[in-house]
Amino acid sequence: MFLASVTPSPLLMGFLSVLPTIFFSCALVSALPFSELIYPNFTGSYLQFIDTSGAFLLSRNGTYKAAICNPDAQKINFYLCVIHVASNTMVWSANRNHPFSEAGKVNLTSKGITVVDETGDEVWSALPTQSSVNALLLSEMGNLVLVDQANISLWESFQYPTDTIVIGQRLPVGMTISSAVSASDLSTSDYRLGLTSSDVILQWHGQTYWKLSMDTSAYTNSGYTVEFMTINRTGLYLLGRNGSVVIQVALASADFRIAKLDTSGQFTVNSFSNGRWNQEFVGPSDSCRLPYVCGRIGQCLANSASSTPTCSCPSNFHLVSLNSNTCGPIDGSFVLFSACNSSNNGSQVDSSAASYLAIGYGYDYFSNDFSKPLNYGLNLSVCQEVCSGDCSCFGVFYENSSGSCYKIENKLGSFISSTDGDNDLLGYIKVVVAPSTNFDGNNNSGDQSQKFPVVALVLLPSTACCILFAIGFVWLRRWRISKFGEEKLGLPNSPSSEELDAFHIPGLPRRFDYKELEVATDKFKTHIGSGGFGAVYKGVLPDKTVVAVKKITNLGIQGKRDFCTEIAVIGNIHHVNLVKLKGFCAQGRVRLLVYEYMNHGSLDRILFGTGPVLEWQERFNIALGTARGLAYLHSGCEQKIIHCDIKPENILLHDDFQAKISDFGLSKLLSPEQSSLFTTMRGTRGYLAPEWLTSSAISEKTDVYSFGMVLLELVSGRKNCLLRTQSHSLDDDSSGSHSSSSSGSGLIYFPLFALEMHERGKYLELADPRLENRVTSQEVERLVQVALCCVHEEPSLRPNMVAVVGMLEGRIPFCQPRVESLNFLRFYGRRFTEDSIIGEENGSNNAILYSQANAFLTTVAGGSYRSVSYMSSQQVSGPR
Length: 880
Ligand SMILES: *[C@@H]1O[C@H](CO)[C@@H](O)[C@H](O)[C@H]1NC(C)=O
Ligand SMILES: *[C@@H]1O[C@H](CO)[C@@H](O)[C@H](O)[C@H]1NC(C)=O
Ligand SMILES: *[C@@H]1O[C@H](CO)[C@@H](O)[C@H](O)[C@H]1NC(C)=O
Ligand SMILES: *[C@@H]1O[C@H](CO)[C@@H](O)[C@H](O)[C@H]1NC(C)=O
Ligand SMILES: *[C@@H]1O[C@H](CO)[C@@H](O)[C@H](O)[C@H]1NC(C)=O
What we know:
By secondary structure, this protein is of the alpha+beta class. Among the domains are: about 30-160, Agglutinin, subunit A, CATH 2.90.10.10; about 300-440, no CATH class; about 600-880, Transferase(Phosphotransferase), domain 1, CATH 1.10.510.10. It has 19 helices and 47 strands. The strands form twelve sheets. A six-stranded mixed β-sheet has the order 37-41-42-40-39-38, with helices on both faces. The chain has a five-stranded antiparallel β-sheet with strand order 14-20-21-22-19, with no helix packed on it. The structure holds 2-acetamido-2-deoxy-beta-D-glucopyranose (5 copies). The site of one 2-acetamido-2-deoxy-beta-D-glucopyranose (NAG) has 3 residues, from loops.
């Protein structure tokens, strides 16, 4: 692989000319694979490419290189990164949170890229599942792309931006970028930049501190909904539909520029020309507006003479930790790290023990401009009371003139020393008064709360007593931390935070207001069904789109964040055979999901209903559509999704009987009791695979089983488990009087009947009699064979959904059912008929099915599942 090449390629020459530090001869000897493409079974380490500073891939014209890099020339943290060659600037890194040492390796295989550390442990990977990787290429724009045989992109680094956007890259709505901790440590820090449907916003621990639209150089062009942010040679743009400009920041023409969220927390745009960087845009430009610029409770004073502000502590506070730049109360009380007493068993830190230490007038807080006050016209004590009862509240700002109350939420940042004379904001920090122990150190030095300019921070350590004091205090702080628990420190947004900013979770679909949906559904008037998780109502949005609004009642997830995380996953799944989630509403305890409306309702109503008969071709298309949708859930999206409840009720039909699967991805939204039920049985009886009952692993093959059952119902046009007497048009002699699938009691377990007819090769017997002669034996045979393969008892014998799609499309041979893995149907069928006789006496269909499932449970599991035998049929059919 590393044979010497005699004539270096022009590419290589070009590369060398911009990297004068590389010795020409060295490069000749190692003859690096410098090309825009590398192919699988490539392995590289930093040491292997040391002659090119780790570079192993160069874009066509040499603008970018991909390298194993060690930013800031340190020797500890190595990354797989993309570097702009001329400016030697890193624009992307793969493993920012998991650096490796110089012995780490980058591997490219047909599965994708993996990065392993010196022990061989994988620290990062990009493994697309759609098809196998043919090459890794670096585009002229700086996009690292995995392509397949047909040069179709399988994965792109542009879709996983770190802290930088380059020309040609788009940051879509809902996606965020995060700043790095420092120039040498690229791990994500607490500052985030996100794109909302109308703006760019910067946040720190879920609190907004800057918006692009407020910047004087940002020009708002139109009110369209923003789709993405991009930069090009003439500026920074937020673009909406069809490329319409929503907000623009016009910049001088430049050939190369990047937009970046700096380690400071500032959003900057810089251009590179004539060998130097030029800052063109920065937000917020006032660095005192940065949430943590002076550390916790630090006071930031803007300095007119320099861009570096002066930091000190407010009165009543003093410096308690030199290296972390933290101020603490001088009166011996202390600031809470987690605002609630979740873990400590001591009783000191409950909300009633909280008191408030004033930081006085003349301060402002970064989030006050961006958050609505909790309320107006309150008096101060009510404002503080609200904060005391709120776990995410660390203090308040109270505006005396209006009675407005602002929370300091999630984490305590720095205060802005306000020179604005009109400011009548009064800041208070929630503290807990020290328990009986006397903090002598504090009291002695209490009056030393002098302000310390930044310079003093450097000088302070020279004073021995200060060091001693600091050490003493750090020790005390540790002691308190261990006593009161600091586990919340550094965590983002506490779950109780009421206004969770949507952009924090990438890919969140549209957020609706409860009022909006109340109006759209005319106060939830038209009930169109009761799907899993709650009732469904029809609604019409102001733009005339008809929607189905699902009111989730069995909600387990309490936190809005967890809910939104799930919603973001579901909202990002788009496939013609999956019902699209258009939006959601999460207000208070209300959780609503807004889906596209399917005008033909669910498959069960049409297939088992009394309306017009579904024609064979329509059934076949429904089977194919459902199979495609499931195949996509199982292997088409980034995260494998097992549906767990495939049945006709969850297959909705749109125009031309296009099948769309609903209710996917919701399993995590169940409450804990329900999800423990879920782990044993979520599915619906009749479609439940045997492994549900034997506590074997649930996999995507569980869905394949349910799909097979649905396929049989499509063929027969009736429920698999049905009292024959209730079946509308089952031919008396078609069931075969000798078959064990039906007994004298007039019961039939269709899957067993299908197996028997398959064994005898009499497929036409299985077809829906209502279809009369509009179907051939051969067509039925194919579907029945696929169905039987899908219901094999042994999950590994069932085909996967991708194969099922192939069979239905006729691209791959139909599979042959394995009778030895279908014998369980005989047993199941016998239980069914026996138990049903008892049920018939009860006259309740549900009871039959319930006792059937129950008997099956206890028999199959040898009684070990007796504990579930009290479950009602309601429960057996999953959380409804
Ligand atoms: C890469 O290696 C694997 C396993 O050693 C092998 O199966 C595969 O054919 C190789 N691929 C190429 C393109 O050489
Ligand atoms: C894929 O792209 C590479 C480089 O751009 C090219 O050499 C190759 O011919 C392309 N292959 C196909 C199948 O288009
Ligand atoms: C940059 O993008 C804006 C918005 O799409 C467009 O109007 C402008 O012409 C672009 N500039 C260049 C140099 O392509
Ligand atoms: C603050 O308002 C509450 C309710 O409005 C009232 O009960 C309380 O007495 C007031 N406190 C003061 C100090 O005015
Ligand atoms: C708040 O304003 C009132 C008058 O509206 C004034 O009497 C009171 O002293 C002010 N409180 C503080 C703490 O400044």
